[in-house]
Specification:
The complex is a heterodimer. Chain A contains 20 helices and 2 strands. Chain A is mainly α. Chain A has one domain. A two-stranded antiparallel sheet of chain A has the order 1-2. In chain A, helix 3 packs parallel to helix 13, helix 6 packs across helix 9 and helix 16 packs antiparallel against helix 17. Chain B is mainly alpha-helical. Chain B has a single domain, classed as Orthogonal Bundle (Helix Hairpins). In chain B, helix 1 packs antiparallel against helix 2 and helix 2 packs antiparallel against helix 3. The radius of gyration of chain B is 19 Å and the shape is elongated. The N and C termini of chain B lie far apart (48 Å). The model of chain B has no long low-confidence stretch (mean pLDDT 85). Classes of the chains: A mainly alpha, B mainly alpha. At the A-B interface, helix 5 and helix 6 of A face helix 2 and helix 3 of B.
């Protein structure tokens, strides 16, 4: 039977759900302070829960912290939640980033629209559920939960640019969800199961004539995730939406692309790993090519970007393209390094989205939108608000400038912060894939990664000069401690990741190894007692 | 039966894709609805087309899969219908907001220059 501690696995889904529902029950918008307090407490609890899940997962030799059978039905029939090293690290990253974005939003952004706090919790529920689930259809449901919440958050604060960008964001995601359903039902029609571990076991034994339909289904499913991850040429919706979204929301959206990347990584190694028979490594060359193209597109876009929010959005593309290309290369060492890169770049980008708003605050367009929305919701000018929390810190521009340099170093991959270590590890792994000669994908990866780092540096330097040096008549933005604090904490986490690179790299390496040898995972999920009946595969 | 079903899915998908690619938001929302119908029927078809077979066990037929239709795709379709209904309603609200803010029903929020 399940021990009490095992219920920790479902907490990352149930806790935000209850918190969100509680906020609505407690009066929604009329009690915003209560909502905010509940939101902070819940998100903080999520950080604690994910840290303990991560420790449990790391302590197990198989890396599988546990399998939670909802309703205690045997695995292939019931819905399961699976916590392994990868899921645990993604949970932790989500909750840390969410906490930073949330605290930032408390200064002013949560007041520019309605129901920010419940939507935020539902978004976390969807993201956590997508990381935890071991079942394809359940994944669809959690995807819809996170998308529905993200539609609300993109439109948070309303205004013309957000509604226009939000409209296109909703259409593209609805279309992707339909592709998701088509892929899932094709796979079910052929393999007769939706449990990921069960699928992984059945795929090698499929008949040759069924393989085409299975691969078509997997390909369509992959398209749905790659739209979310922003792979070129499915990414044109992303820069506009991310630049138009409110900054705390954009910051947590940096994690949303990683949800797509996570699913691609998980499914491609679990279903189409070395043991998948004739379907082994299905689609990996497309991931590699698409990833490299995404990095190239993001690089060109960030050089062409006129304002910093768009620059940040294009950097998101570079980050997810790099990880996708690494997944396409498929070696253990490359994927370990890619996970390290994923953590570092997501933290850096999250900090950058928050920072951009602070830096651009002195400029007209952002101020315009804020003023309009404040008028709309009847808020008086809150800078004169006597109940102001936090203090206006001195030497604002200095602190902002240092934070900007930190973000730039992480995003472009320069020493001394973790971005450099991540890129260094990626390149070392990519160049050492085969003994002797360096493979062609290795060279392409090296070239694109170095060039994109250089371009990011140029773009960020230019934006920095424009923002900090070349505008003498601008007012110094008034920044509160609870706004700059989260940015600095995220950068500090990157610094810790640099100092503790050894243990973290070991963890990522172990994660990549268990992803490449999914037998323990499959055995753990299906369990020794799992009931089996009927022909194992191939038509029903 | 299969031919009718396949033709139906094909016609719905074709019209849906064409409408989604149109520039007016109302056409897009109708297109999305048609596409979601097509996908729902497709999910049912993936559970194999059976006519007149119940998706739940009848008395004394337990353990014989030949007696009943696959219930799982039907459960999936129920979920998919609920979700697509909700998202369509949400999309409708955004469509109206966009129409109100921009004064046009073009998906880009402005009329293309002639």
């Amino acid at each position: 039977m399940i021990r009490f501690a095992d219920h920790l696995m479902i907490v990352p889904i149930v806790l935000p759900l209850f918190a969100g529902a509680m906020m609505l029950a407690l009066g929604g918008e009329r009690r915003r302070d209560v909502n905010a307090a509940l939101n902070v407490a819940t998100t903080f609890a999520l950080v604690a829960v994910s840290i303990s899940l991560l420790q449990v997962a790391d302590a197990k030799p198989t890396g599988l912290a546990g399998v939670y059978r909802l309703g205690d039905w045997p695995a292939p029939f019931a819905i399961v939640l699976v916590v392994d090293r990868l899921a645990a690290v993604m949970l932790l990253l989500t909750s840390v980033l969410a906490l930073a974005a949330l605290i930032f939003s408390l200064a002013r952004w949560h007041r520019v629209g309605v129901l920010f706090h419940p939507l935020f919790q539902f978004l976390l529920m969807g993201i956590n559920g997508a990381f935890l689930t071991g079942d394809l259809f359940n994944l669809f449901v959690f995807f819809e939960v996170l998308l529905a919440a993200s539609y609300g958050l993109v439109l948070h604060g309303s205004g013309l640019p957000r509604v226009t960008a939000g409209l296109q964001y909703i259409v593209i995601n609805l279309a992707a969800s339909l592709l998701f359903l088509i892929g899932v039902s094709l796979i079910y029609g052929i393999a007769g199961t939706l449990n990921m571990a069960d699928l992984a076991e059945r795929i090698p034994r499929l008949r040759a004539e069924d393989r085409g339909i299975l691969e078509a289904g997997a390909g369509i499913l992959g398209i749905a995730f790659l739209v979310k991850a922003g792979m070129w040429p499915l990414c044109f919706w992303l820069p506009g939406t991310y630049a138009a979204a409110p900054p705390p929301v954009a910051s947590i959206f940096a994690m949303l692309t990683k949800v797509g990347v996570y699913i691609v990584l998980r499914l491609s190694l679990l279903l189409f790993g070395d043991s998948a028979g004739a379907s082994a490594h299905f689609g990996s060359e497309w991931l590699l090519l698409g990833g490299l193209a995404t990095v190239a597109f993001g690089t060109i876009g960030s050089l062409a970007a006129q304002d910093m929010a768009r620059l940040a959005a294009f950097s998101v593309l570079v980050s997810s393209g790099t990880v996708l290309a690494a997944v396409g290369m498929g070696q253990v060492a490359v994927i370990g390094a890619a996970l390290f890169y994923l953590v570092s770049s997501t933290l850096g980008l999250g900090a950058f989205f928050l920072l951009v708003e602070l830096v651009e605050r002195g400029r007209e367009p952002g101020a315009d939108v804020l003023a309009v929305t404040r008028e709309l919701y009847g808020e008086e000018n809150e800078l004169k608000d006597p109940q102001e929390v936090g203090i206006a810190i001195p030497a604002t521009m200095g602190v902002l400038g240092v934070a900007f340099i930190g973000c730039a170093a992480i995003i472009s991959g320069l020493p001394p912060l973790s971005g450099f270590l991540a890129k260094f590890a990626l390149l070392t792994a990519a160049l050492n894939t085969a003994p002797g000669a360096i493979s062609a994908p290795g060279w392409a990866f090296l070239l694109i990664l170095v060039l994109s780092g250089l371009a990011a540096l140029i773009a960020l330097t230019r934006a920095g000069i424009r923002a900090f040096w070349a505008s003498p008549d601008r007012a110094v933005p008034r920044v509160r401690l609870i706004e700059i604090g989260p940015v600095l904490v995220l950068l500090l986490l990157c610094a810790i990741q640099t100092v503790q690179a050894g243990p973290i790299m070991r963890y990522m390496r172990a994660t990549a190894e268990s992803l490449h040898a999914p037998q323990d995972h499959i055995r753990g999920v299906l369990g020794a007692t799992a009931m089996r009946f009927g022909p194992p595969a191939g038509g029903s | 039966m299969e031919v009718v079903l396949a033709l139906g899915i094909g016609v719905l998908t074709g019209s849906g894709v064409w409408l989604v690619l149109r520039p007016r938001t109302f056409q897009v929302i109708i297109g999305m609805s048609l596409l979601s119908y097509a996908v729902n029927v497709f999910i049912i078809a993936m559970g194999r087309v059976r006519v007149g077979a119940p998706p739940i066990l009848a008395a004394r037929s337990a353990g014989d899969p030949a007696q009943f239709a696959d219930p799982l795709p039907q459960a999936l379709v129920l979920t998919a219908i609920v979700i697509s209904f909700a998202t369509t309603a949400l999309f409708l609200v955004v469509l109206l907001a966009s129409r109100g803010l921009t004064g046009t029903d073009h998906v880009d929020g402005r009329e293309p220059e002639q």
